[in-house]
């Protein structure tokens, strides 16, 4: 199974934490700060993700889509973006959102079923999670296309899963990207499954990356649990887009360690040996940690302090989210239109009485 | 036989259909090995195999489009769309083909597809998992639309849909999947499409609802009875075609009518039913027909869902308003 996984992929850090030749060259050029930040973000995101699952079990948030196992794919790619770039995520990309500056409080609010969680601060160009699969991909194409038409430098990135590549929206978005040479990054986290359906059932193509060929732009397959490789491939794709050379499809091969959501039970459809292998052998954080240790960049004390700080930040965000005054029932009309009609105002007034 | 939930009743109906008719194919996302995200197809894949119970790639347009093709070539597909909020990619197939194929081929190729779709709110589901857009479909001539509110009706309506010679959209109220248990008959039985169910008899006011809103309406009717108001509750069950006779008979008796649905008010099915009553029982009315519905705003995320959807107190208040008109 792994042989097929590794087909034509880019890897810079082996699962033992060793740099490949190409990886070493890139590592050389990176600052210690960036190297540490990769790690810190991944640790932070994992702590948050685990806490979210606990909160769901306690009934404090609703159904939640965990991302553990996909931290490298999310951090590596998001780290390559600038704050001006537009991000069009699906529902599993809280890691990306955090790196791009979305406050953690918002992310908790979203999973508490509160619409406040959809709204990013004005300087954060992260759209609300797209729940209907693949529908955000054409938006990213449009946003990127607008940059091109306005002769601006920002690009757009769409995040989606392997399952999304079966939807028409994905293919139509690819086609537009190719035809109009749009500065967009189509970033697929291939975690092997769309709920219970394995990628082998999703597509007869061996890889997602090769689909780009039909649309005549580059497609790269990268070890999605190798944060360095993901970062570098995404960065190069972004540079290419900014130079006006068009779109890139990136397939980050990864795995979600847990269930699809807290309402799902992955044991029904995934072989335990496969899960174990990913958890024990291919964990993105463990691998990167080995590299940092080998390189003398990981200070145990510092690491412990950081984990504590993460917990505090998470506690704080939960407190903020849980103490935020609930929106009143009539809020459903507040942002329906710039100007409400008479009928809508009447309905809004009716809802006000529900308080 | 032990009492069944609605989701078990649906599973039982699918089992009967697969067992008795070789041409029945169940297909959709996660319906096979996983048994469906709500377990409505639990065990069917193991029992009937990969060519009868088919996990498809993630593509609603192709699920429905291919189902139409299968029907053209003699199979009887029962497709599952995972949630109503995700049926829209298949809208083109449903509206331009499924609904029209019989007409366009002058009877040669009716698109005899059943589309099962969980719908409605009330389970604190994530965004977009709570749509109740039945009137988008009842507006389309050429497809039938049904929804049960009890386990017994669920199995019977499903089997009727599967034997029906035309396309049927079968809406499954998620909130009721596991909330009610009742004995259901074993084997094959049908609840005819096009017939409403009189849930309880009353003299003062006719309450018409369907799916998730039936239990809410029933509860409000019980409360009203304590206030001396006797309501007749009708579970529409078949949203297209509508059982006009049952509605009109009841309204002629009570002289008052109210429709309760969780879909938004404007151009909702309540408007259609109001017109039917106005056309056929206007002179019997002692008060204007009233609607209690979801609001004309997108279904909110779940924190605001309980006040967005009609609830018992709202229905009761409306009952009192109609009675004091
Ligand atoms: C259009 C649409 N159809 C179905 C669903 C239900 N659904 C939610 S997630 C999912 C699987 C998605 O798999 P993938 O694209 O691989 O993303 P992952 O969940 O693995 O991150 C499905 C079928 C949906 N959200 N939208
Ligand atoms: Mg996936």
Strand content of chain A: 5-15%
Low-confidence runs of at least 5 consecutive residues of chain A:
none
Determine the CATH topology of the largest domain in chain B.
Rossmann fold
Shape type of chain B: globular
Name of the level-1 CATH class of the largest domain in chain A: Alpha Beta
CATH superfamily of the largest domain in chain B: Thiamin diphosphate (ThDP)-binding fold, Pyr/PP domains
Number of strands of chain A: 7
User: Strand fraction band of chain B?
Assistant: 15-25%
Q: Count the DSSP helices of chain B.
A: 12
Percentage of residues in helical conformation of chain A: 40-55%
Amino- and carboxy-terminal Cα gap of chain A? 57 Å
Average pLDDT metric of chain A: 96
What is the average of the pLDDT values of chain B?
98
How many discrete structural domains of chain B? 2
Quaternary class: heterodimer
DSSP strand tally of chain B: 12
Which features would summarize this protein structure in a list?
heterodimer; A: 355 residues; alpha/beta; Rossmann fold; five-stranded parallel beta sheet; two-stranded antiparallel ribbon; B: 325 residues; 2 domains; seven-stranded mixed beta sheet; five-stranded mixed beta sheet; 12 helices; globular; binds thiamine diphosphate; binds magnesium ion
Account of the 3D structure:
The complex is a heterodimer of chains A (355) and B (325). Chain A is α/β, with parallel strands linked by helices. Chain A has two domains: 3-324, 3-Layer(aba) Sandwich (Rossmann fold); 328-355, no CATH class. Chain A is 48% helix and 9% strand. Chain A contains 15 helices and seven strands. Chain A has helices at residues 2-5, 21-29, 32-57, 71-79, 94-99, 104-111, 137-149, 168-180, 199-202, 211-215, 227-242, 272-281, 284-294, 300-323, 342-352, and strands at residues 86-88, 156-161, 184-190, 193-194, 197-198, 219-223, 248-253. In chain A, the strands form two sheets. In chain A, strands 1-2-3-7-6 form a five-stranded parallel sheet, sandwiched between helices. In chain A, strands 4-5 form a two-stranded antiparallel ribbon. In chain A, α11 links the parallel β6 (219-223) and β7. In chain A, α7 (137-149) packs parallel to α8. The longest helix of chain A has 26 residues, at 32-57. The relative contact order of chain A is 0.15. Chain B is an alpha/beta fold. Chain B folds into two domains: 6-176, Rossmann fold, CATH 3.40.50.970; 197-323, Rossmann fold. Chain B contains twelve helices and twelve strands. In chain B, the strands form two sheets. Chain B has a seven-stranded mixed sheet with strand order 2-1-3-4-6-5-10, with helices on both faces. In chain B, strands 7-9-8-11-12 form a five-stranded mixed sheet, with helices on both faces. Chain B is globular. The complex binds thiamine diphosphate (TPP) and magnesium ion (MG). Magnesium ion binds next to β4 of chain A. Magnesium ion (MG) is lined by residues 161-163, 191, 193-194 of chain A.
């Amino acid at each position: 199974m792994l042989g097929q996984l590794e087909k034509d992929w880019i890897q810079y850090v082996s699962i033992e934490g060793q740099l490949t030749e190409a990886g070493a060259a890139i590592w050389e050029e990176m600052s210690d700060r960036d190297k540490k930040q990769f790690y810190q973000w991944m640790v932070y995101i994992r702590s948050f993700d685990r806490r979210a699952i606990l909160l769901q079990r306690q009934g404090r948030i609703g159904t939640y889509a965990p991302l553990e196992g996909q931290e490298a794919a999310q951090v590596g790619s998001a780290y390559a973006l600038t704050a001006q770039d537009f991000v069009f995520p699906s529902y599993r990309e809280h890691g990306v959102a955090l790196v791009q500056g979305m406050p953690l409080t918002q992310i908790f609010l979203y999973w508490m079923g509160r619409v406040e969680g959809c709204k990013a601060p004005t300087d954060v160009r992260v759209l609300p999670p797209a729940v209907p699969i693949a529908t955000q991909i054409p938006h990213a194409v449009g946003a990127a296309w607008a940059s091109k038409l306005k002769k601006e430098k920002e690009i757009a990135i769409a995040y989606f899963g392997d399952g999304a590549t079966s939807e028409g929206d994905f293919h139509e978005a690819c086609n537009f990207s190719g035809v109009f040479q749009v500065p967009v990054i189509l970033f697929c986290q291939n975690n092997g499954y769309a709920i219970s359906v394995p990628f082998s059932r999703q597509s007869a193509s061996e890889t997602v990356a090769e689909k780009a060929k039909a649309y005549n732009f580059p497609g790269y397959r990268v070890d999605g649990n190798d944060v360095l490789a993901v970062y570098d491939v995404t960065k190069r794709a972004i540079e290419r887009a900014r130079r006006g050379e068009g779109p890139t499809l990136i397939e980050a091969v990864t795995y979600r360690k847990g269930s699809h959501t807290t309402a799902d039970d992955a044991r029904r459809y995934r072989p335990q040996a496969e899960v174990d292998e990913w958890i024990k052998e291919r964990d993105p954080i463990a691998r990167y940690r080995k590299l940092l240790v080998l390189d003398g960049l990981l200070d145990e004390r510092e690491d412990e302090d950081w984990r504590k700080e993460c917990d505090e930040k998470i506690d704080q965000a939960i407190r903020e989210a849980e103490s935020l005054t609930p929106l009143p029932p009539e809020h459903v009309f507040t942002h329906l239109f710039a100007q409400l009609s008479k009928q809508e105002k009447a309905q809004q007034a009716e809802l006000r009485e529900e308080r | 036989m032990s009492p069944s939930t609605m989701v078990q009743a649906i599973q039982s109906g699918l089992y009967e259909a697969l067992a008795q008719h070789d041409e029945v194919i169940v297909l959709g996302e996660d319906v096979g090995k996983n048994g469906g995200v709500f377990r409505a197809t639990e065990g069917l894949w193991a029992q009937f195999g990969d060519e009868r119970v088919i996990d498809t790639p993630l593509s609603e347009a192709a699920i429905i489009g291919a189902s139409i093709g299968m029907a053209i070539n003699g199979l009887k597909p029962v497709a599952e769309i995972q949630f109503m909020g995700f049926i829209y990619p298949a809208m083109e197939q449903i509206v331009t083909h499924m609904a029209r194929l019989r007409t366009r081929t002058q009877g040669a190729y009716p698109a005899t597809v059943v589309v099962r779709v969980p719908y409605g709110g009330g389970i604190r589901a994530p965004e977009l998992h709570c749509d109740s857009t039945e009137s988008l479909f009842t507006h389309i001539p050429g497809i039938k639309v049904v929804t049960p509110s009890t386990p017994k009706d669920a199995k019977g309506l499903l089997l009727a849909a599967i034997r029906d010679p035309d396309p049927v959209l079968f809406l499954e109220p998620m909130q009721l999947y596991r909330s009610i248990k009742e004995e259901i008959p074993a084997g094959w039985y049908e609840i005819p499409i096009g017939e409403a169910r009189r849930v309880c008899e009353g003299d003062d006011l006719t309450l018409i609802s369907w799916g998730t809103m039936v239990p809410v309406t029933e509860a409000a009717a019980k409360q009203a009875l304590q206030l001396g108001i006797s309501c007749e509750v009708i579970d529409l069950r078949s949203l297209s075609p509508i059982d006009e006779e049952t509605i009109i008979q009841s309204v002629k008796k009570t002289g008052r009518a109210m429709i309760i649905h969780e879909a938004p008010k404007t151009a909702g099915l309540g408007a259609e039913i109001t017109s039917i009553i106005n056309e056929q029982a206007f002179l019997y009315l002692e008060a204007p027909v009233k609607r209690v519905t979801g609001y004309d705003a997108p279904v909110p995320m779940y924190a605001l869902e309980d006040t967005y959807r009609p609830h018992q107190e709202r229905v009761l208040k409306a009952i009192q308003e109609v009675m004091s008109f």
